[in-house]
Specification:
The complex is a heterodimer.
Chain A lengths: L6 H12 L37 E3 L4 E4 L4 E5 L8 H13 L6 E5 L17 H28 L6 E4 L2 E4 L4 E4 H4 L32 H5 L15 E6 L6 E7 L1 H4 L4 E8 L17 E7 L2 H10 L1 E6 L6 H14 L3 E6 L2 H7 L2 E9 L11 E6 L4 E5 L4 H12 L6 E5 L13 H13 L3 E4 L2 H6 L7 E9 L5 E11 L16 E9 L13 H18 L4 H14 L10 H14 L9 E9 L2 E12 L2 E12 L6 H21 L4 E2 L2 E2 L19 E5 L14 H16 L16
Parallel strand pairs in A: 3-4, 8-18, 16-17, 20-21, 24-27
Antiparallel strand pairs in A: 1-2, 2-3, 5-6, 6-7, 8-11, 9-12, 10-11, 13-21, 14-19, 15-16, 15-18, 19-20, 22-23, 23-24, 25-26
Helix pairs in contact in A: 2-3, 10-11, 13-17, 14-15, 16-17
Chain B lengths: L2 E6 L2 E6 L6 H8 L18 E4 L2 E4 L5 H7 L2 E3 L1 H4 L6 H8 L9 H14 L5 H8 L9 H17 L1
Parallel strand pairs in B: 1-5
Antiparallel strand pairs in B: 1-2, 3-4, 3-5
Helix pairs in contact in B: 4-7, 5-6
Classes of the chains: A alpha+beta, B alpha+beta.
Keywords (chain A): Oxidoreductase
GO molecular function, one term (chain A): isoquinoline 1-oxidoreductase activity
Enzyme class (chain A): oxidoreductase
C-alpha cells in the first residue's frame, strides 16, 4: 500500500540505497554516558540530547540506529498524558539492550501496516503491546548481533550485548550498534526470539523521566493547537446552542466584512451515504465554519454571526433526567444481566436488608487543550495532524466523507493536552478535513472552551439502586444492583461482589436522549465504583463489621468457592491490594482521622485506597490518600505514580464538584467560571502509592485509580459528618440535576 | 489596523492588530510563541499566564493596545530559559511534574511569580498562589512539591 508523506518508508529506501558494509571506525556513545542521579531537592538539569548522526539505518518499524549509536524508538500510540511515549519505548529499549540515555523517542504517525492498535483508550496501550514491544526490541537486537557475528567471523552464541555494545569476550573485540546497523538490514529474523528474563531488566522497573519533560517546561512541546504551517488559515465552528436544535439559516454578510475573515461555509460531518464508525458520536454534524487569518478574529466573528436555529426534538432538563431515571429504577422493565441462586427468596429470608440509591450527573471531559485539528485536503489527498485517540477510525471517516481512498489520508499525531476519552470521538478532525476541502487550503480548526464544553459526548448521568440482604450473623446472603443511565446502564454484572454472594441479581435500564454521550475516563466505573464501595461500607456497618474485614470475607468466599463462572476479577489479587493498603495506611491503628476505604478492579488493574479527611470551616479537606496498586510489572514507576496521583485528584475533584446541567437542551455551564474543576488548594495534602509487584505481565494505569477514590471519599465524609452522601457532586448538591 | 511596539522576552517586537486583541493571541498567532496556552479565554484557568514587568498576568485578559500603552515588558515561558535551567523548571523536571503538560507553562509562570513575592512560601501561600491554575490531569501534589524544591534552589543559588 502506498502512503503519502511516509518519511520513514522513504527512509527505508534511502537506507537500503546508501547502506551496506560496515561503518568501521565510528565512535559510539557509551563512552560519554552521563550521570543523571538526582539528589532530592537539588533540581534536575536535563542532559543535552545526544548528537544526531548524519546517517540512520532503519532496523524495523520501531527502531532506527544512527551511525554514532544513537537510537531512535518510535512510540506508536497516541500520547494523552498517560505517558506511553516514555513507557512504550522503554520496553523496546530494554530488549534491544541499549543505554536509555542514548535513546531519542519520536511519535509515530498512523501506520496500520507496522503498528498494532494505535489507540489510546481503556488503559490498554501497555497491556496490549507488552509482548509485541518486547519482541520488537529483541528482534532488532538479534539482527545487530547477527550482523556483528558476520563481521567478526564468530558464532552469534559467542556474543553478548550491553548498553548498545556487542562484545566478543574471547577475543576482547567489540562493536557498537551504530557500526553494524546498516549491515543488519538484509538479515532474517528467526521465529523464536529469546526475550530477557525479567530479573535481568535494567530499564523496565526503573523510574524514567517523561521524554518530553524538557520541551514541556520550556514551552517547546508542540500540541495540535500549536501547529503552524505556511498558508494555514484558522477555522472556528458555530454549533447549535442546545441539544435538539439544528441549523435553519444564517446571515454572514456582516461577518464577512470583519477584519481577517475569509470564508463562511457550512459543513456536514455526517453526510448521507458515508459510512460512519463507532467513534463518530456527534450531536451537531451540521455546522457553520468561519475561516480567517487569526484565531482572535475568527472567535470574534463567531460571536457576531447571525444564525437562526430550529428545534427538531424537545430540549431536555436535568431535573427531568433525574425524575425519569428514578421512575425507571422504581418501575421500569429491566434487562437481567446476571442472576445467581434465588435472590427473591434470599431477600425474603434475610434478617436485615440495606437499601440505598446513588446518582451522578453529566460530565464534560474538559481536556485543557480544547478540540482542534490541522487539515490540508484537496482532490488528491488529505493530510491531517493533531490530537486524536483513535487515528485509525478518523482515517476511515475522513476517507468516507471526502471520497478519498484510505491510503490517500495521512494522519500524524501530536502530543495531546489531555484526552480522558473525549478524543476517542474525532468529529473535530472530520470537521477540519471538510472545512479544508471546502475552502481549498490548509486550516487549523480551533474550538473555544465554550464550543468544547457545550458540544456533547459527555459522561452520561446515572442512578443505581443497591439492596443487600444480611442473615442474623451479618453474613451477606443476597445482593441486588439495579442501574439506569442516559444512553446505557452503568452496571458491570460480573464484577465483585458477583461471585462472592450466593444469591445475586444485576439489572440494566436505560433512557434515550438527544444529548450525545460517550466514554469518559474509566467509563461507567467512574460512577459505579464509588456507588458500590459506598454501599458496601454501609452494609459492613449494618453487619457490625470492619469495612476491610467485611470485604476480605467476601473475597475469601470468591477465592474458595466462587459463585458462577463469569466473574471478571482475580479475587486473590483484589484481596491483596486491600491487605496491602490496610498495612500501609495503618488502618488498624486509626486515630482521630475520618477515614474511608475502597477497592476496585477495572481496566485489568487492582486498586485499593484509604482516604483521611478533615473538615476545615465545614469544607472537606483530604489530608492523605494511601493507595495500593496491582498492575503487575510496573514499567516506569515514576510515570506510574504520577498516573495514580492524577486519577485520585481527578476523581476527588469530579466527585466533589463536577456537574453539567441542562435547561431546555442547553448546557448551563460553558466555561470555568461556572463549571468547577478541582483546584490546587483542594487537592489531597499527601498521596502515597504502593505497588504490589508480582512479576505478572503489566496492565494499564491511566484509569484505575480514579473510580474507587469516589467511594473512599464518600466513606470518609460519612465518618466526618455522620451523614452518608449519595448524590454527586458531594460538595454542591444544588448543582445536581 | 494599528501597529504596536511591545517588549517580549527582552526583544522589541512590532505587531499589527486591533487594540482589543488579547496578548495571548498576539503571542501565539503573530509572534509564534506558542508555549503560552489557550485554555478558557476568560481568565479562569491560568493556562495563558505570562509576566508583565515580572508579575503573573492572564494574557487572555490583556488587550494589546493597553499593554503597548503601559510599556510593560512581557516574559513568556520561552523567556524563562532556553535549556530548562531556571530553578522552577529544574524543580519541575526533578519532580517529573507533567502528565499531558498543557497547563504547565502557566503553572510554571505562576510559580515563578509566587516565588518572587514570597521566596519561602508556606503551604497555605502555595495553595493560594497556585489555585488560579487548573490542571485536569491532577498534578497538584507534584506541583506543590516542585514549588518547595524551587524555593530551596533559589535560596541556594
Amino acid at each position: 500500500m502506498k502512503k503519502l508523506n511516509n518519511n520513514r518508508r522513504n527512509f527505508l529506501k534511502v537506507s537500503a540505497a546508501t547502506g551496506g558494509g560496515l561503518l568501521l571506525g565510528m565512535t559510539w556513545l557509551t563512552s560519554c554516558e552521563r550521570e543523571v542521579a538526582i539528589e532530592e531537592g537539588t533540581g534536575f538539569k536535563m542532559p543535552p540530547r545526544p548528537d544526531m548522526p548524519d546517517r540512520w539505518s532503519e532496523v524495523n518499524a520501531f527502531v532506527k540506529i544512527g551511525e554514532n549509536g544513537v537510537v531512535t524508538i518510535y512510540s506508536p500510540n497516541p500520547e494523552i498524558g498517560q505517558n506511553v511515549k516514555t513507557s512504550m519505548p522503554m520496553i523496546v529499549a530494554e530488549e534491544l539492550d541499549v543505554d536509555w540515555q542514548n535513546v531519542v523517542v519520536e511519535q509515530a504517525g498512523l501506520d496500520t501496516d507496522n503498528f498494532n492498535s494505535q489507540l489510546a483508550g481503556g488503559s490498554q496501550s501497555i497491556r496490549k503491546n507488552w509482548t509485541i514491544l518486547r519482541q520488537t526490541g529483541a528482534a532488532a537486537r538479534y539482527l545487530l548481533v547477527a550482523a556483528a557475528a558476520e563481521s567478526l567471523g564468530v558464532p552469534v552464541a559467542e556474543l553478548r550485548t550491553e548498553k548498545g555494545i556487542i562484545y566478543h569476550d574471547a577475543s576482547g573485540k567489540s562493536l557498537g550498534y551504530g557500526e553494524v546497523a546498516s549491515a543488519a538490514a538484509g538479515i532474517e529474523v528467526p521465529e523464536d526470539i529469546q526475550l530477557k528474563d525479567p530479573k535481568d531488566f535494567t530499564i523496565i522497573g526503573q523510574g524514567k523521566k517523561n521524554v518530553d519533560a524538557l520541551e514541556i517546561v520550556t514551552g517547546k512541546a508542540v500540541y495540535g493547537i500549536d501547529l503552524q504551517a505556511e498558508g494555514t488559515l484558522i477555522a472556528g465552528i458555530v454549533h447549535p446552542p442546545a441539544f435538539g436544535m439544528e441549523l435553519k439559516s444564517f446571515n454572514a454578510d456582516e461577518v464577512k466584512q470583519m477584519p481577517g475573515i475569509r470564508h463562511v461555509v457550512t459543513i456536514d460531518a455526517k453526510p448521507g451515504g458515508a459510512e460512519m464508525q463507532w467513534s463518530d458520536v456527534n450531536a451537531f454534524p451540521q455546522l457553520i465554519a468561519i475561516v480567517g487569518d487569526k484565531t482572535w478574529q475568527v472567535f470574534q466573528a463567531k460571536k457576531a454571526l447571525k444564525v437562526e436555529w430550529t428545534t427538531t426534538s424537545a430540549g431536555e432538563f436535568s431535573a427531568d433526567h433525574r425524575k425519569e431515571l428514578k421512575e425507571l429504577i422504581e418501575s421500569g422493565k429491566a434487562d437481567v444481566a446476571r442472576r445467581d441462586g434465588d435472590p427473591e427468596q434470599a431477600f425474603e429470608d434475610a434478617d436485615h436488608i440495606v437499601e440505598a440509591t446513588y446518582s451522578a450527573p453529566f460530565l464534560p471531559h474538559n481536556t485543557m487543550e480544547p478540540m482542534n485539528f490541522f487539515a490540508d485536503v484537496n482532490g488528491e489527498r488529505a493530510l491531517l495532524n493533531g490530537p486524536i485517540q483513535t487515528p485509525e477510525y478518523l482515517r476511515k471517516t475522513v476517507s468516507a466523507v471526502t471520497g478519498l481512498a484510505e491510503e490517500k489520508v495521512d494522519i500524524q499525531l501530536t502530543r495531546m493536552g489531555g484526552g480522558f476519552g473525549r478524543r476517542l470521538y474525532g468529529n473535530f478532525g472530520v470537521e477540519a478535513a471538510l472545512i479544508s476541502k471546502a475552502i481549498g487550503g490548509p486550516v487549523k480548526l480551533v474550538y473555544t472552551r465554550e464550543d468544547d464544553m457545550t458540544q456533547g459526548t459527555y459522561r452520561p448521568d446515572y442512578l443505581v439502586k443497591y439492596r443487600a440482604g444480611l442473615d442474623a450473623e451479618g453474613k451477606l446472603i443476597a445482593f441486588h444492583v439495579r442501574g439506569a443511565g442516559t444512553n446505557g446502564s452503568p452496571v458491570f454484572a460480573n464484577r465483585f461482589p458477583a461471585g462472592a454472594v450466593e444469591n445475586y441479581l444485576a439489572e440494566n435500564l436505560s433512557r434515550e436522549s438527544n444529548i450525545s454521550t460517550g466514554a469518559w475516563r474509566a467509563p461507567k466505573s467512574n460512577f459505579i465504583a464509588g456507588a458500590e464501595q459506598a454501599f458496601l461500607d454501609e452494609v459492613a456497618e449494618a453487619a457490625g463489621k470492619d469495612p476491610i474485614d467485611f470485604r476480605l470475607e467476601l473475597f475469601d468466599r470468591a477465592i474458595a468457592d466462587p459463585v458462577g463462572e463469569k466473574n471478571d476479577y482475580d479475587a486473590e489479587r483484589y484481596a491483596g491490594v486491600l491487605k496491602e493498603v490496610r498495612v500501609k495506611s495503618g488502618w488498624d491503628e486509626s486515630g482521630n482521622q475520618h477515614r474511608g476505604v475502597a477497592a476496585y478492579y477495572c481496566h485489568n488493574s487492582y486498586v485499593a485506597q484509604v482516604l483521611d479527611l478533615s473538615l476545615k470551616n465545614n469544607r472537606p479537606q483530604v489530608d492523605r490518600v494511601v493507595c495500593a496498586v496491582d498492575c503487575g510489572i510496573v514499567v516506569n514507576p515514576e510515570g506510574a505514580v504520577n498516573q495514580i496521583e492524577g486519577g485520585i485528584i481527578d476523581g476527588i475533584g469530579h466527585a466533589l464538584y463536577g456537574a453539567l446541567t441542562f435547561a431546555d437542551g442547553k448546557p448551563e455551564q460553558e466555561n470555568y467560571n461556572t463549571y468547577r474543576l478541582i483546584r490546587h488548594a483542594e487537592a489531597p495534602k499527601k498521596i502515597e502509592t504502593h505497588f504490589v509487584d508480582n512479576g505478572i505481565a503489566p496492565t494499564g494505569l491511566g484509569e484505575p485509580s480514579l473510580p474507587p477514590i469516589m467511594g473512599a471519599l464518600a466513606n470518609a465524609m460519612y465518618k466526618a459528618t455522620g451523614k452518608r452522601v449519595y448524590d454527586q457532586p458531594f460538595a454542591n448538591p444544588t448543582l445536581r440535576g | 489596523m494599528p501597529t504596536y511596539q511591545l517588549k517580549v522576552n527582552g526583544q522589541p517586537r512590532e505587531v499589527e492588530a486591533t487594540s482589543e486583541t488579547p496578548l495571548l493571541w498576539i503571542l501565539r498567532d503573530d509572534l509564534n510563541l506558542v508555549g503560552t496556552k489557550y485554555g478558557c479565554g476568560i481568565g479562569s484557568c491560568g493556562a495563558c499566564t505570562v509576566h508583565l514587568d515580572g508579575v503573573a498576568m492572564r494574557s487572555c485578559q490583556t488587550p494589546v493596545g493597553k499593554l503597548a500603552e503601559s510599556g510593560q515588558a512581557v516574559t513568556t515561558i520561552e523567556g524563562l530559559s532556553d535549556d530548562g535551567s531556571h530553578p522552577v523548571q529544574r524543580a519541575w523536571l526533578e519532580h517529573d511534574v507533567p502528565q499531558c503538560g498543557y497547563c504547565q507553562s502557566g503553572q510554571i509562570m505562576s510559580a515563578v511569580s509566587l516565588l518572587q513575592n514570597s521566596p519561602q512560601p508556606s503551604d497555605a501561600e502555595i495553595d493560594a498562589g497556585m489555585s488560579g491554575n487548573i490542571c485536569r490531569c491532577g498534578t497538584y501534589v507534584r506541583i506543590h512539591a516542585a514549588v518547595k524544591t524551587a524555593a530551596k534552589l533559589q535560596a541556594n543559588s
